[in-house]
Request: fold
Amino acid sequence: MHLSTKYLAVAGMFLAAAAVGLLKNTDTPGADLHSDTALHPAPQSISIDTPDVLGVDTFSHDEFRTTIQETVLPGLIYLRLPPPITNNSDTDERIIRAAKTRGYRLQGVANSLLDSVDNEFLHPDAAQAWTLMKESALRENVELVLKSGYRSVEQQRELFLGRLSSIVGSVTNTSFPDWAIDAVLATASPPGFSRHHSGFTIDIADQSQPNFDLSAGYEWMSANNFESAKMFGFMPSYPTDTAAQGPNPESWEFVWVGKNATFSRPNRSDEVIRHD
Ligand SMILES: [Zn+2]
Reply:
């Protein structure tokens, strides 16, 4: 992903080896704790408090995009072809071509049981992470609200067609002009191309500020390279300043990719500290 990952992965192995060595010593009554320091150096020589080693990783906005694209999430099936949109194949082709030019890609669609949370459906991993993140924000007086979770391909089709029809002013004429297609693609995915199909993607709001970009909620989520989001395994879905990613930037959308993706390495700090 980027250069620091390799270094941090090695640091993780180093800490794991040290932890195993310490465990062995505690299992052996009377063992000389200092006899094999070459195999596992004294714990205080490991800078376990260094945020770079134990904390969440740092990502450029393009790295958020590629990490979300490359992270394999459970319980998804992948469409081989874009689903129909307008029942007019020429129009559909123009929509798909324009969407791909903007950076839209076909997305995984949830194919496992989803949990109901805050009147939305999410994959259980994302639902639990969302709840914990919401509670953490609330402890700092930030009231985050879940606005949208899982969306089926058919729901996205209705949403996309509704936007197109409202721009053109007709629900019957399906030969939508390119300018209308481009206008809708700036803010809405065609069916099959929405990250909401996965059950891992959330739209959130801040109760106290309708414009999420200006809200305390966004400040809380995005501060320090989206540290709060990453602490719970979330990444910004469509951040600013990225290469073609589909829609215009969306400050309110986040994708759960898991802590294995957001943290520098598996978080084993508690074990190591206990054995000190
Ligand atoms: Zn969204």
Observations:
- The mean pLDDT is 81.
- The chain has two domains: 1-57+265-276, 72-257.
- The longest strand covers residues 250-256.
- Residues 158 and 191 are 8 Å apart (CA to CA).
